[in-house]
Design brief:
CATH superfamily of the largest domain in chain B: Thiamin diphosphate (ThDP)-binding fold, Pyr/PP domains
Number of strands of chain A: 7
Radius of gyration of chain B: 21 Å
Strand content of chain A: 15-25%
CATH architecture of chain A: 3-Layer(aba) Sandwich
CATH superfamily of chain A: Thiamin diphosphate (ThDP)-binding fold, Pyr/PP domains
Oligomer: heterodimer
Strand order of the largest sheet of chain B: 3-2-4-5-7-6-13
CATH architecture of the largest domain in chain B: 3-Layer(aba) Sandwich
Helix content of chain B: 40-55%
Strand content of chain B: 15-25%
Order of helices and strands of chain A: HEHEHEHHEHHEHEHHE
Number of domains of chain A: 1
Order of helices and strands of chain B: EHEHEHEHEHEHEHEEHEEHEEHEHEH
Distance between the termini of chain A: 37 Å
Radius of gyration of chain A: 17 Å
CATH topology of chain A: Rossmann fold
Largest interface: A-B, 34 and 38 residues
CATH class of chain A: Alpha Beta
Structural class of chain B: alpha/beta
Helix content of chain A: 25-40%
Largest sheet of chain A: 7 strands, mixed
Distance between the termini of chain B: 53 Å
CATH topology of the largest domain in chain B: Rossmann fold
Chain lengths: 252, 355
């Protein structure tokens, strides 16, 4: 007899992803869906999808989904969670969405300690609009709006979201992970799971920053993009837990 | 029921609670702050939620989330804050979610001042944000009417799945009047099969405003447009005041209408046939009120009296459609039209022409 060893998670719809070849959004979607299934929370989960490449996640996740304006997902999630505190609410946001136009919303949702899980996808560019400079674009990185490379004098410095949000009192868990190889993917899934468990324990806002690729706008092949992430993004954005709940950590 | 003395801004709050609203998200701005102060105290008493947001951008998006989750929800602000909310209001209108937004107008443009004006009429009645949409706009002119209309605002929002804007000004918000409170009804909300409240065993729901295929967006635009047409037919509200035999009909809403009622009374004492149409819905604009009066043939002129440089007059002209001349008198910047000045305008039209 054959044994089924790999299947689509129940929290993912049976439709193909639209993402470009080599883009790691698909991996991250799958990880979130696997965790939703493992925690058996599909029925009470509400996702907020952003503006950007991940907007279509309403087609992919099998839970209820509300699509927010650019950057406003944490405010929308706040509204939902305040109405339905027993539901599980997560946002899925890119770097332009969360760290540029939506910086105010994420900082204050964090300060309020909203009991939501935030998945912050950092691929260092605006993907959907054509590869412009993001707040997380590296110094020297060439993008559509920094054709000579990001110049700190002109364009300022990249924003390190985990470092910043970990000092805000309302955050319970802040971690940065990557999905560039199998080992990092396993760690990323653990962090995603923890972010949901922390919400279920009511400890505060949990944010997982996930370093991701954008081969199309980086002008690299899928394999080159994974290497570029490992060599450049991780060097600037170190991986690891920036904040974990101390005494409560045992429970989760 | 015994009457109680209540401030306009507080009446919005108490009226909302009596209408079953249990969620408020807002950001401080004068001259509506008493509404937030009131609900900060009152919401916890009824098991509701009052949350001060970090900006109007956030508060309207909290409203979007709460409405999407199926709650009766409201926010309030004043001009500059309402401008910031337009992005969110456009999303809520596109997603067809119910909510109530209160705008206690202040002088503008820019930071302007905190005095009473009516200069957000265009913003309120033309949708306000990007895209092709409308809000239902209610304009109370007394504290009692605030109490009565805000209940209707929630009902209309749910009936049509559309944001409802209540438009007041600093004077209406700040003044106190005796009001009769309606009873606190246990409001049973209509079912919300569309709410993203977690599947809980049911089908997946999506609330979405991205409609990327032109054919589909055109269909959605058409669906919204048909809804707006239904609202235009069914929901026009206005008050006629001594219009039956009027030769000159004033048109004014909110605070300006209070002044104009005095003008009508004064003119009637002087045997001048003056009346008033007071639009209560600014959108849909009460076109029917004009069609009826024009069918009587006694009316010769319309005079729009506004606390702006002339915004509602455009809707009056559209309603009258060239059948009679429409004149304008306005004060602005926080200055109020006073009875004697409006009477002068009336006499100019009614008496000088006869000389």
């Amino acid at each position: 007899m054959f044994k089924k060893v790999f299947a689509r998670p129940k929290a993912l719809e049976d439709v193909p992803f639209h993402f470009c070849p080599g883009c790691t959004h698909g991996i991250i979607h799958r990880l979130i869906a696997e965790v939703i299934e493992e925690l058996n929370i599909l029925e009470q989960t509400i996702g907020i999808c952003p503006v950007g490449c991940a907007v279509f996640s309403y087609n992919y996740f099998a839970c209820d989904i509300l699509q927010a304006a650019h950057g406003r997902a944490p405010a929308v999630a706040t509204g939902i969670k305040r109405v339905l505190p027993d539901r599980v609410v997560f946002t899925y946001q890119g770097d332009g969405d969360l760290a540029a136009i939506g910086m105010g919303e994420i900082v204050h949702a964090a300060a309020r300690g909203e009991k939501i899980s935030v998945f912050f996808i950092n691929n260092s560019v605006y993907g959907m609009t054509g590869g412009q400079m993001a707040p997380t674009t590296l110094p020297g990185q060439i993008t559509a709006t920094t054709p000579y490379g990001r110049d700190r004098e002109i364009n300022g410095n990249p924003v390190k979201v985990c470092e910043m949000l970990s000092v805000i009192e309302g955050t319970a868990y802040v971690a940065r992970v990557s999905v560039h190889n199998p080992a990092s993917i396993i760690k990323a899934k653990k962090a995603i799971k923890k972010a949901f468990q922390i919400q279920l324990s009511g400890l505060g806002l949990a944010l997982v920053e996930i370093l991701s690729t954008c081969p199309t706008n980086w002008g690299l092949s899928p394999a080159e993009a994974l290497n570029w992430l490992a060599e450049n993004l991780i060097a600037y954005y170190p991986l690891g837990d920036f904040k974990t709940p101390k005494e409560e950590a045992k429970n989760v | 029921m015994a009457k109680v003395l209540m401030k306009g801004n507080e009446a919005f709050g108490e009226g909302a609670i009596r209408a079953g609203c249990r969620f408020y998200f807002g950001y401080p701005i004068t001259p509506q702050s008493e509404l937030a102060h009131f609900l900060a105290k009152r919401m916890p008493e009824v098991g509701g939620t009052f949350l001060q947001a970090e900006s109007e951008l956030a508060s309207i998006n909290m409203v979007y989330g709460a409405a999407g989750a199926g709650a009766r929800v409201m926010t309030s602000s004043s001009g500059p804050g309402i401008s910031l909310m337009q992005e969110g209001i456009s999303f809520i209108a596109c997603a067809e979610l119910p909510c109530v937004i209160v705008n206690i107008m202040r002088g503008g443009p820019g930071l302007g001042n905190i005095a009473p004006v009516q200069s957000d009429y265009f913003q309120a009645t033309r949708g306000g944000g990007h895209g092709d949409y409308r809000l239902i706009v209610l304009a109370p002119s007394s504290v009692q009417e605030i109490i009565d209309l805000i209940r209707e605002a929630f009902d209309l929002a749910e009936k049509y799945l559309n944001p409802v804007l209540m438009l007041g000004d600093g004077l209406l918000g700040q003044m106190m009047e005796p009001v009769e409170l309606n009873e606190v009804k246990e409001v049973s909300l209509p079912p919300r099969p569309w709410a993203t409240s977690g599947r809980m065993g049911g089908p997946k729901r999506i609330i979405n405003t991205l409609i990327i295929v032109p054919e589909e967006l055109e269909k959605h635009n058409l669906k919204l447009n048909q809804k707006y047409k239904r609202i235009e037919v069914k929901e026009q509200r206005w008050e006629n005041y001594q219009t039956e035999d009027a030769q000159l009909v004033l048109v004014a809403f909110g605070t300006a209408a209070r002044v104009c009622k005095g003008v009508v009374d004064y003119c009637r004492e002087q045997r001048l046939a003056v009346g008033l149409i007071r639009p209560i819905t600014l959108w849909p604009f009460p076109v029917k009120a004009f069609d009826y009066l024009l069918s009587l043939a006694t009316v010769r002129y319309f005079l729009s009296v506004e606390m702006s440089t002339g915004q509602m007059i455009e809707d009056i002209r559209l309603a009258v459609n060239g059948r009679r001349p429409v004149y304008f008198y306005g004060r602005f910047g926080g200055m109020l039209p006073v009875l004697t000045d409006v009477v002068k305008e009336v006499k100019k039209l009614l008496l000088e022409e006869e000389c």
